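Run Sugar transferase through structure prediction, thanks.
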Amino acid sequence: MGGFVAAVSLRVALAGHTRWGVAIATLVAVYFITSFSIRAYDQDNLQNPRYAASQGAKALLLSVCAVILLAFVFQASEDFPRAVMALGALTGTILIVSARYAFVRNMTSIIGGNPFTVMLLRDGQAPVPDGDFSQVVETGDRFDPDLHDPIMYDRLARLVASADRVVVACPPERRIAWASALKGTGVQSEIFVPELSKLAPLGISSCANTPTMIVTVGPLGLFDRFLKRLFDIAVSGLALFLLAPVLGIIAVAVKVTSPGPILFRQVRIGWGNEMFHILKFRSMYVEGSDGAGNRSASRDDDRITKVGRFIRMTSMDELPQIINVLKGDMSIVGPRPHALGSRAAEKLFWEVDGRYWHRHSVKPGLTGLAQVRGFRGATVIEDDLRNRLQADLEYLEHWSIWRDLRIVLQTFQVLLHRNAY
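Sure, done. The structure for Sugar transferase is below.
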């Protein structure tokens, strides 16, 4: 805000515009109205430095747009050069983002403690949440929410009046009573429900006026899914056109060097945990093929043909999956799909880590973050699976189309990998 005022004030001094003083005063007023309307100064929004900075920038840019609109409505836009407005907005945004980020990040040391008072009310021996509470109060008999007693309500109101936030830890059967008692205090109040930690809810919604907990919304929105699908079609279509001669040569080599079909089909776990048939060039003798994937390929696996060893080492056995991508079963980039019988240290993958199923919230990919990090080959120990899973979950959390492009480019560097056999 100060940067905008400074830039504009300099321009006013040089050009002598008389209406800039009114414009600046209007902007300051609109900025504070906007800031409070988008809750830029609420305690929840002042806990995260990045979010606090983004809210400040949002409030300033909305305010500048509002002032420009007012200038246009009152036919005063010619008095406000665009270059000055742009300079002020840019300078102000940089300064307000920097200032809010630095302040929130160092708020505790600047103020000399937590500026927000968080009070914990403990009813009985109920488990309590972790956290740094300003005050912990054992409710005992003095604060009994089951008693509809004006004196008790007055006592409770005086207790929590100085708090910015109240958290209640109580037995399950008393949660409704505490919720009712606290709703009239005018203080942000919360009931600690330890069971929720296992559900990891994202928020609250409703179904037919009945509250429900949101446990997942999927990592990609509608536009992101459209963008990713467009990327898949473009890349796989181009790859199929350019690699057609290579695909033909491999198909002939597979056919003439060992009896059996050219393609190997296997059931894999796909998007939304639905199963699909993945396509690969057959790299093993027919009698040694493992449709369920109970046995992972090893370095000296006698089931692999001579041609199969070469195409597995160069990852060319995976090329038919371009067709899976075009069909919509797979994506160019995503967690690699696994066979139902895949194991790590004699355990099925989902027995090693229950989060395994979470990786299927996007389409499986021809390549993925785990692969470019070198996590491929046989899963001999449980950590082999955990490393891949961690990379897959990281990919879901930080997805972007640019990251997909980077992973595709990085894939070319790891095609000839020591664990590819």
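The chain has three domains: 2-111, 118-196, 222-411.
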